[in-house]
Amino acid sequence: MRGVGYQMDADWRNRRTDPVCARPEVSGTALSLDTIRALFPPTTGDPAFDPELIKRNVERLVTTPTVNTGHAFLDLSVRTGLAFVDATFQGDHPKYGVKHYAEARHEAFPPTIVAAVDALSAWGLGARAAQLFRYWLKTFVRADGTIDYYGPALSEYGQLLHTAALLQERAGLEGWWKEGSGTLKRMAERLVELCVQSEKGGELIPGVPEADISSGEPLHIHDSTHSENNRYFHNSAWVARGLLRWVELVQRAGTDADRRNCARVRKAAEGLAARTLSAVERAWPNDLSDWWLPPQVEACPRPGSLTENALASYTNYRYWPELLSSGVLPAKLANRIVDARLSAGGQFCGMTRFAGHLDDWPLADYLYGLWSLGRKRDFLLSLYGHVAYHQAQGHLTAYEQVSFPPGTEKAPYCLPCQLVAARAARLLVKG
Q1: Sheet containing strand 351-354, strands side by side
Q2: 297 by DSSP, 3-state: which?
Q3: Given CA atoms 31, 37, 43, 47 in this order, what sign does their dihedral have?
Q4: pLDDT averaged over the chain?
Q5: Domain residue spans in the chain?
Q6: What is the pTM of this model?
Q7: Cα 339 from Cα 195, distance rounded (Å)
């Protein structure tokens, strides 16, 4: 029976460490998904789509490699996530999720296409990934290389360039490069200009860190200390990473003229990466036991925990994970982020805490960071916790936000959250 041994702890929200990590059945040498699933009652809620539709989509899937992680429930979570892509998109047109997340203003949100292309191409569904990526570039990028969305984060520009390089590596150029390369080039040129401007003052690039902050969207917490144009580390880190990935892609697939420009792009990206690393080292405390690692150059109030206010919650659930996944930080600094999350109230059963609930839609960035650091146990706990409790029992809908167990929907289904398992579990399968 699921949830055997479950006992509600009223103090969960005040704990600084993940209470699951201290359980004897979890702290042993092996970490089992079955053990994690037995800890608490499953999350419940309504399906985002007709379960029979999703079941048919799952049955039609032919992946390369075969989804075989060694655990049937994780396999089903992966295949279900992949099946949700076509259920969520309207043809080639993206939707972030359902209910108010299906409104037109959310359609251009870059993490939706980034997650979809990554998940599909990882499992050999490259033709569909190319089709969606081509449409997105054509529809949502303006002539000047800016994204036609109310609040694109600077990091998302870099992630889109990385997505292009990843798609070429996994599936080739057919179906998207001819139509999309010019758009991507304009995006890259805009980022190079921002790098050059910031270099003149020896600074990082100021910009929007997250759509919620940028445009009058209601915040999850209302005491935000954010400014729309601070110099966030994750933004500059991903701009640098994206431009370096663009150089790699152009060298493989670009024109001679574009390749001649690669030295200029690489210089701008490497300069920004170096300035970002120096800024992080200046901003973070020398005391290695101090968990508060500010997400920006500008001074900001120190929170009492990672869920005390909006700055802390956004740092924990998105800014740190994206800084991790950028690969800009050396292992010593990257491990400090993970240790801070684990010691200052950043997670519950591996899932990401945001204020008084759990919010895993950016979890793939954290998981990629853990994997690159070789922290497989932390990786498995977060992946297992996510599939066990961020997805609803039966139909496996992954809501954007859920409550602590017994879990219920706090914010509607969204595709990036649904694709966490498909993206991260690919690392567990050879081939």
Answers
A1: 347-348, 351-354, 357-359, 399-402, 409-413
A2: coil
A3: positive
A4: 93
A5: 1-17+27-103+348-431, 141-345
A6: 0.95
A7: 31
